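Incident log entry.

Two folding requests arrived from the same account within the same minute. Monitoring flagged them as a possible duplicate submission, but the sequences differ. Recording both here for audit purposes.

Request one:
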Amino acid sequence: MPRPSLKNRRREEILDAYEICVAKFGVEGATLEKTAEEAGLARALLRHHVGNREELLDALVTRFLENSEIQTKGFYAALPANNRMETLISWLFDPEYSDSRSVLVAEALIAASEARPKLGVKIKAWVEDFVKQLSQEISQHAPQESPEAIEEVAMGITALYFNAESLTPLGALPDIRKTSAATCLRLLKSLKKGDVK
């Protein structure tokens, strides 16, 4: 079996270090110097393996979006046949499924989007895809409902989820998660007009 490329491994190590820096300092504060220090490498090696600061950001965004897509697909694939939406809501607000560093990176990317329109397009599409997948799941749960009602509930759940996730770096906040999940279930129940799928 061939050994993994040292360049690929080094690239991932650099992206890990940059991700830590973005989580700590935001996109603008995550300099090449700080990233090199976090990675324990010379700055020149960052440029050699990944590129300049913009290329480093592009690589991080690509990896963030790809990982998010993989996790989301796995998340939906693991839902049970019955009570899918109730289970989904339970999982969304379970702190076990939250990752503080990923939350901080997402927040940093969102914050940087205003000054970086190309980044903003990608992050906006990421959020819209989240809403779209959630809407599809809700429409299977309540197929008799109007698209407008489904979108309203999907937007409400999204807003509650993103808000609760944004507080993850503060540590355990079980009341906020519990109340947010209960509010999502209340929104979901507003759509019920028959048997739950």
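Request two (distinct sequence, not a duplicate):
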Amino acid sequence: MKVDDFAANLQQVRAHVAAACVRAQRPPESVALIAVSKRQSVEAIRAVCAGGQRVFGESYVQEALDKQAQLLDLEIEWHFIGRVQANKTRQIAAHFAWVHGLSDAAHAQRLNDQRSPELPPLNVCLQVNVSGEASKAGVEPTELPQLLAVCAELPRLRVRGLMTLPAAAMNEMAQRQPFALLRRLRDQHATPELPLDCLSMGMSNDLEAAILEGATMVRIGTAIFGARG
């Protein structure tokens, strides 16, 4: 893909997000765009960054660290998206601003203990398995209160909200159902002390459904970068 194609794709995605916000009667700035750059080249990230994108998501720790080392000249906010592994928590705690996909109390404790006091608290979105798929990570909805309680006591973590990766659905009505469930869970468990103001949900194929149900962050890879290599 040519450099100009990345910039054009980014603008198309932004327009799609803005249109979905209009439909949902929400301001466009209420939805943050995360460009998911896993398995994409440093050159592709630079091209998207040149289009004004500053928030990027990665899922493979070593790959992300290699890219970060090559992109130190750019102001990028790095989000870790995906399953957290115990042997990667130290690197995640040191090199990312956000984690989308935390679903284990032991991993939460490790991230907290390994986050440097010199860094701001690590922003986390707790992953909830709203589709009941055995192959998907995330806590069951009934287990969410316990994980929230654990994380709320960890000073180096800042619980920002919830995240989900639902099963694929064929139409918008079906797509909206799991996102609506996550929103209801947020509303149920939010408190003044823990407002859970972030809902990380929606990808290239279902971002409009997610925004209609209250997404504040959409994680877009294919629509910006094309198919992964």
